[in-house]
Amino acid sequence: MPIGSRAFEILEKLVGSAGLLVTKDDLIGSVWSGLTVEDNTLQVHISAVRKALGEDRNLLKTVSGRGYSLAGAWRSGHLDHTAAAPVAVPADALFSSNLPGIRAPLIGREDCLSQLADVLSAFRAVTLVGPGGIGKTKLAIELARSVALSFNDSVALVELATLQDAALAASACARALKLASNDKGASAASIAQGIGTRRLLLVLDNCEHVIEAAAQIASAVLRYCPNVTVLATSREGLRIDGEYVAAIPALSVPGADVHDPDLLLRESAVQLFVARTRALRASFAAGTDELQKIAAICRRLDGIPLALEFAAARAANLGVNTVLLRLDKRFELLNGGRRDQLPRHQTLRATLDWSYDLLPPAEQNLLCQLAVFPAGFTLDAASAMTDNTLARSDVIETLFNLVGKSLVSLDPSFEGRWRLLESTRAYALEKLADAGLVEQAAKRQAGFLRQIIAPLGDASPAPDDISRFAQEIGNVHAALDWAFSPGGDTALGIELTAGFVPVWMQLLSFVECSTRIEHALAHFSPGFSCVPKLKAQLYVALGFSLLNTTGSADRMKAALSTGLVLAEELSDLELQLKAVWTLWSYNLNSGQYAAAKKVGERYLEIALRTENPANEAVGRRLIGAATHFFGAQEDARRELTLSLDHSAHGLNGGANQVWFLLNQSVLAKAMLARVLLLQGKIAQSRSLAAECLQEAERENDKLAIAYALRNAVCPIALMTHDLVTADQAISSLLDLVTREGIAFWTSWTSCLKGQLLVLQGNRGDGIRLLRSGLKARTENGWLMRNPEFLGSLAEGLLASGEAAQALAAVEEALSMSRQGRQLWCLADLLRIKAEILLTNAPSDLSRSELLFAKGLSVARDQQCRFYELKVAAAWARIMAGSNRPQSALDLVGPVSALFDQAIDLPALAFARALAEIPGILLATATGPRLAPATRLPSLGRDTCLRCQK
Within 13 A of 398's CA, how many CA atoms are on the CB side? Predict the structure, then answer.
């Protein structure tokens, strides 16, 4: 039986082990000693051994994950019959290699060449397939050169590209083999007879246009010539017995996110482009900017070597930038092939003409129809484009043929999808336009997308569906661009926009979502009619999208107001809830907490009418969050606890998941953690913050993770001076926001990082970040928590000796707090102002103490022990510095005693140290006690403000 040398060595090794297990490592080490070989290479040769065993193939057993064993009784010896005498062959049939003498460097194909050499040693028929210009011929010739020695340098290259008639294929083969000097009498059988038993590598190049004749020649040679191996190149396989079809990949291209010059130059497409450009312009040197543009060209040309050579030739004369900008006109641009090439390889258009002209009409039609899918397509999409004129089985067959002919490729990123290379798609679109069928195809594509998206309705896509719908974004872009064009279908475009909103939201693509919605809404006119609910949905969705972008608060409010009116006119309670919820978000984020509380109550009223526990849970959370920032912490705790109590009733299910996008449990826990902190329950607060973050991470809900970090983990760590946790949490939030491109959150991260830097003593950078974040937030009308950030800015400025600027910042914070009823941090702002005034006039305690007293009163009214402790400690420090230690202890002692002794806060450390000063008595349940001397801490400041001089 004919068998490759590697496969025979494997067979020898297995026979020598007498039926025992031979591990994969042992086989590889024996057959490929000193080389690094992948498992799939071994599997190729094992398949060849099984094929040679024929009916006894089951003797070769695979031991899963370990290796192989060979059963049966084997012995060494000789054939019993006498070997056949060699067939006499005329002298002129003693052929040697006719490979071309000129060699060109094979850039980026080294690994491919090595793998193919192994395949060629295991199979007697190997066909290299791929689209035009992929480099099949060049690779086949270099492969033949690399293995020629094992064929005694007998390699026959048969060039079929120039043949106009398939009947001439046999004659061309005979002439290449020196079996005939003319075209008479040549046939597949006569060629096989002429070769006989000689050892030979027969290379059939460019078979696609004479595929039937080439297949007959290869089949006859393999059947009657035991020592011949056939290597073919074609845009489709020969489809003969024993054939191994090797798809030739494109050259590797850099990803869009790769910018490092060294990494760009590692990709073979970039290497080829640079090498070809330098060959034509020796002075060419690619800097960082040019390498980025070259990488973009390589991606646009799909790493196809021939197209890259055309582009490089143009870049040598016109420059890289010009080539990149003109790629939309690629067939006019990429036409500078070498004169010694085949005519079909002298322009990109000619290369594609060659493949297209070989297709039957049905395949030409489907290829052109599929070109309207820039992001690839499914089998259902391909069927939809035939408008039911073809049975599904016929569509499958036609698509299978296009894949086999290398005009359509399987999309490796998602199972069950196919795509056209960009150049092939551009060519097919031209053909579609020439036939006047672009509008018809675009309408079918848009209708198909509407059909698959329509079932979403108001529901959230299941997690498994998100990646599937994400694959369609590029197609949706194309469909919407057509729908809103002069010859498009506006109504279809509006339906498609509304239908795809849930997908954009789940993918956190808020900027794109708001842009597309505004474009759709701009096409409504007085005479335009569509489903009334669509307009209301689009306005409400626009409001929510703007909430998560850098869009202005005023634009968001206008959109929501319109959406809410339309929802009320429709008596649609669920849509009203969405509008009211987003309106609540507007008020909360713009720092209008009194208004937010009223809107939350309105939401709850509508929610109770729906009799849906999930809606009621959301309403309780909205009221609780607004009440927390309003300053009523006990009321807030009650509402948030009620919200969490509804978690057993489908809190995170149904339509809420689409429009609220978040795990409502995470939001409620994050806000409750803040409330617990202000109520002085530090340990519970930290624990609940960590719990809500873990819940969000467990579900991989990116937006929920962001909310858990921003609302709970980061601020709680900062307020309790847990700077290590704060640093880690802020870094995590910054990474997430940057990675996902959530623009709205950038100002948040700036302010939080600024607070941290001020606490760490890096006041200059902290002040800069706080000012930057506050400026962006104020310009867009988002004032939520700005008084808190202004307070941190004032403290940073005060510590930097900028008392006047610090006073201006805290006055702005107090004004903003009172205007929007952002009262939750009012007590702390009063403390900060008191300390600033004390710095300006150390001898005048009256104004400062009045502010301290007012801050204490506010904190107590709000049942906010955290700020009560902080204000009391600051005032007590002033008292202790003015020879009133007992008054200081009487002030701070009782509130500090309410905190867990294990908690480490600067204010608690101060109070405890104050109680330890000799002669100072702290009233306790058992009476006064006397404590030893202890140094008084300074509340985290370098020096006591009272004693700075």
Answer: 24
